[in-house]
């Protein structure tokens, strides 16, 4: 089977190359081999796209620097600096930026340009497409988190986790939160009709969830109805997990439940991962508009 390079619908020079590589053998390529090839394509395309780099990676950094420079004082009822609460929350926002917003928008663009449709016609196992996306999300989220923590530590004095247990909590909260947001982003992409409307449909959800999930304000100070709504979404739980890592245990005095609820955090993020996977499997469209 031989594919010719399409003259349109191409956002960079990597996708047609991947299609030729997948079509180069008459046998069905192994899932892991195809996934590795697709992951390389995804990472190369992301880092070559300056707009994706700026919007996905730099937007949370800009928020961190701006709001970190504005906030001051202690959280009411505690001896904890408001800056530290914000720093913990902005890490969760960074995860959502790369795993939810970035993924949903990129899928919408690839569906609109016909890339998803063309990949579906190659011998590549369809699961390799999603594995490649997930690898891209994991790598970019790790970079985003390292960048945010580096700035928070250097400029704003955010303390490192003080115990091995807290480092472990940071690891599983980051991992579960990343996968949960990625699955939510893949599922949410089904609601995006075309690439032109992608940012307009994704960005409001991204921004609203930050405001009601305890990123910009201490969660316990938000109206009760906001807390209730936020509890249905993963950002609130990720942010709470990160607070348990970076803030003193005395801060639980102003947490709504009076404790960190680590088991509840893990359960909610796992359920979002499973739910996103099921919804994606049921609603994902491999056929977008035809490329003219």
The outline comes out as elongated
Number of helices: 11
Mean pLDDT metric? 86
Task: Tally the structural domains.
Answer: 1
Characterize the main sheet. none
Give the N-to-C terminal Cα separation. Answer: 22 Å
- List SSEs in N-to-C order: HHHHHHHHHHH
The portion of residues assigned to helices is 55-70%
Strand content: under 5%
Contiguous runs where pLDDT drops below 50 for at least 5 residues: 1-28
Number of strands: 0
Radius of gyration: 20 Å
- Structural class comes to mainly alpha
Plain-language structure description:
- The protein is an all-alpha fold and 292 residues long.
- The chain has one domain.
- Helix content is 68%, strand content 0%.
- The chain is built from eleven helices and no strands.
- It has helices spanning 15-23, 31-48, 50-70, 82-112, 115-120, 126-156, 164-188, 198-212, 224-230, 234-246, 262-283.
- The longest helix has 31 residues, at 82-112.
- The relative contact order is 0.15.
- The model is unreliable at 1-28 (pLDDT under 50).
- Residues 1-23 are annotated as: Disordered.
- Residues 1-11 have a biased composition (Polar residues).
Task: Give the arrangement of secondary structure elements.
Blueprint: H1 15-23, H2 31-48, H3 50-70, H4 82-112, H5 115-120, H6 126-156, H7 164-188, H8 198-212, H9 224-230, H10 234-246, H11 262-283
Helix pairs in contact: 1-2, 2-6, 3-4, 3-6, 4-6, 4-7, 4-8, 4-10, 6-7, 7-10, 7-11, 10-11
